[in-house]
Design a protein that fits this description.
Number of strands: 15
Radius of gyration: 20 Å
Structural class: alpha/beta
Amino acid sequence: MQSFGKPRILIIGCGDIGLRVAKQLAKGCRVYALTSQKTRFQELRAVGAIPILGDLDKPDSLWRLSGLAETVIHLAPPQNTGHRDCRTRNLLRILAQGSDTVRRLIYVSTTGVYGDHKGARVSEITPVNPQSERAKRRVDAEDSLRLWAPAHGVVLTILRVPGIYAADRLPVERIQARTPALIAVEDAYSNHIQSDDLARLVCAAVYHGKPQRVINACDGGETKMGDYFDQVADAFGMDRPPRLPGEDLQKIVSPMLWSFMRESRRVTNQRLSELKTPLRYPSVAAFLKTISKNP
């Protein structure tokens, strides 16, 4: 396709973060965005992206992606069941047909691949130890990409991302519902990144990502989950959530929520400096100061 001299970038999985990334990159690049819904075309065009119709669950619908762009930003999550990420495998099969067009691929994974470390620090060299099916699918995606990229001369950057937050992505409803948190002695460390900061890091990886590199895209904070809820409650002038022992809490929350609450790790971010993009919000507390209703 004609690129009019601009670098061509394809975004796979253009949700909230993808839209933020597309808006930034469209200023200097020709940005394509894969979507399975025609109803999203207008929204994608509004941020400067060119919509491409296709569904990662339907490989025959992906033919338009072959040879389309030099850089691919893969933000799509795996399907909801199984231990393999079939969506990533479908994507790689079609990209391999593009006559070596792709030169760089950025994959946004999750820090969930590390599993539970009982509060210990983990870094990019810590072996993965996924304990949920969701995390196992992410490890499968990473493994597939790490095999595929060097075989096709592609520079691969994997960004492992923790809990994403923004003004409209805070646990306000959870706090309003009085959903309990764990008592302090049993509480787990949680890790965070603000959504605009994450979008900026993804864009930075397009230009500064080192070959076959894993980077923890987090703020490096060491806040326990219950304390995080308390910070949000204080910022909005709400009552702090009650606390319960894990034995009692497990009985009243969903299995998925419990799987998040029982894994504890402190994710370090020393490699983040490689992307040459300082965080605007180095902590949740720094962000909450900008929106607090209870100064």
